[in-house]
Write a structure and sequence with these properties.
Largest sheet: 5 strands, mixed
Structural class: alpha/beta
Order of helices and strands: HHHHHHHHHHHHHHHEEHHHHEHEHEHEEH
Low-confidence stretches: 1-72
Strand order of the largest sheet: 5-4-3-6-7
Mean pLDDT: 86
Radius of gyration: 28 Å
Shape: globular
Strand content: 5-15%
Amino acid sequence: MSSKKTLKRMNPKQMDSDKTDPIKQMEETRSMNRASGFTSSYLLSFVALGCLALTPALSAQDATSRPASQPTTEGVESSCTELARRVLAGVSRVPESVRNLPPQKLEEVQRDVDEAIVAANQYLKQCPKATEREQVLVGLGKLLVLNNQRVLTQHIKDYQDANNKKSPDAVWIGEKRKQYFQQVFAVLTEAERTRDEDLAGEIERLKAKCHYYVGDFAKAAETYAAAIKSHPLDPAPDETLCALAGSYLKAGTQAAGALQDSSRFFEGVLTHSQDFVRRYPTSRFLPHILHMEMKAYVGLGRTDDGLKFLQKYVDMHHKVVGGEAIVIDGQRHMFSATTRSEFEVYLDQYEFHLGFMHYVNGNILEAQSHMQRQVDFLTEKGKTKTLGPSSRVYLNRTNEVLETMKELQGKPAPALELGKDSWVNDQELSLEAERGQVVALLFAAYGTPRYDPFSRALETYYQAKWGEGFRAAWVTFRKGPRDIEEQKRDVDAQRRRLGLSYPAGVDCSDQFAASRGFNASVGGANFIVLDRQGNVAWFKIDPTERDLAVAARVVDRLLSEK
């Protein structure tokens, strides 16, 4: 018990100074890599995990058949303590965030992690009953969670090398990730026997993180919530609450894509984000929480509330990014440079979100005004500062939205002339014949799973709202010179698989003129909604399950306009 407390209180610098020769350790790491068939740059995560089936208690035969040169009990304990120190030292040296680290520093962190995993591997084989075992297991769990993307990247590279550079599909990647985390769960499950309250809370939070990484977001949210309730002495409660809100947001999007009730998850985001702002208004995670709350309003289709929310915090974003102090609870607070940079990322897209919500609500002039301000803001900023990747995406996307608004908004829809025999099973949608109805056109490439959830949700809405005057059609694009009838059969097969009953057609017009008339991205996806007069009333670039609620709100609004 005493050794356990000593390890927990050990100064990381003292751990570093007590390490054995680092060159020797690195050579040991490389040697173990070679023996295991890995290159020296590859993570040893699976090497460590491979022995965890590991960690069987010594049998009576093992205990009595050791050779005479076997270390004494005292020597084994000393060795176990040293290995434990190396593991915990490696964990302590990992920075809070590895994003934006310079290459040399990143390599140093990766080397520390690799060495700590090797030490943990040795410890778990050699020290089945040592008092530090739960600490080492938790430390190993942290390292393996941190390492998961490196391991997955290497698996993908190995697959490509073995398959003529062909990349694996999402199912293969998902299975590899699942297998990896099953073994991480095994590590954490063994550690659960601890009676240490701090370790128990850390285990629960690590398990939540594992659920998140394998895509079980609802389970991640449930586990984070349980950790907050059962282990209130969290050293980073704001981080855990932020992770809980993020899990709810992902769970809501996932449920929407599966055509399940997503509202309880998005409501969960609002509950916990608002609690976060009350409890941790100066946290470094504040900009992320505010962004999540905005996305939850979109997920719920509550764009009126979303607008009020965005308008409430717009000045704060400008002041923080401008380096001004913010008055919180009567006290002036200055956010760190790192947190200000996170606020800046979201400020660079703020006007777009304001414009988008106005557009959903039918406030066309306000939407255009905010979109133009977004373009002007980023264009001016780009003259003196390099725009980040996200900012460049929003600049291009907003320009595209404004261009489409200028060309189509409120104007009669172009003709939908796909070409001779282009409709699947002769089931055609005629815009002229459907005048007086609200018509939705989904322009999307076939064979692209990204848009399947939206297509299926559109079918549900199509069935529910047919009697109120809602019509829909899927327009896809011809791919290459292959026979059009074969391509139509492929489209029909996808329709049947997704259970779609609304018409589907293949754009065979010259240079895809029919689709381009709607400013649709050939090969991508666009969602266009026409009002009862046949005018373009709304459109969405790259529609996914995240947009289901707002798209439904738009259609409901247009259906109510007689």
